[in-house]
User: Fold this.
Amino acid sequence: MKYYLGLVWEYFLNYAKTRLTYRADFWVEVISDLLFQATNLIFIFVVFAHTDTLGGFTEAEVVFVYGYFMIPYGLYSCFVNLWNFGDRYIVKGEMDRILTRPAHNLFQIFLENLDPPSLIGSFIGVIIMFWSGGQLGIELLWWHIPALIVMVLGSTLIYTGIYTILTSISFYSDSPTGIIPLMYNIQTYGRYPITIYNRIIQILLTWILPFAFVGIYPAALFLDRPEMIRMAWITPVMGIVFFTLGLLFWNGGIKRYRGAGS
Assistant:
């Protein structure tokens, strides 16, 4: 464990050195991310300009859910960025280099794609939760912080598991599948009340592609929504299950990998 933590620190230092050299790129990335998050918030406000509730949730509650949604997504984007895996590691053959090193190959790929500016989204998510929670009159209780940590870790593991499974498809096909951009669009469904979708979509977002556990379900725990509290506590379990599935798919794909020249 000490060895892996040391690797994380070294990669963070290397990232900082690179960004200090290209500061303009860093700030462009940060500002772009902030504008993107602001656009999503504005969309929520526009929706509620035409309705009082959405699936039984008020504007402040939906904003609260969105704030929670931003926290695990920021962590995932920072530490588990697999967006260009196929092109970089399979097509260009960089996976060969990864496999010659002692650290676990998936962990190395996580490190090589660190994106610390994404953590700004997580911090903004916390601010949004506190702001909207104040609007809702939510009182901060002793168990809220530890519960939030557990829920966020579970949600982050769900992201990691799902995208690791999808990334593993690259070991079976050299051509881009286009499925990851599609999944990116589907994941946004988790930041809205699941009650606005039909039964089939609810099942899909709960048990098959469980993006409801990266937004609405865990956030409902702090909103004290009795109809969803039981599902909220399943979040860490779903995180462990899908992270384990992700590792199994990844290890299976690695066994099929034959190198760039074969």
Observations:
- The longest strand covers residues 53-54.
- The first helix runs from residue 2 to 21.
- The beta strands are 53-54, 57-58.
- The chain has a mean pLDDT of 88.
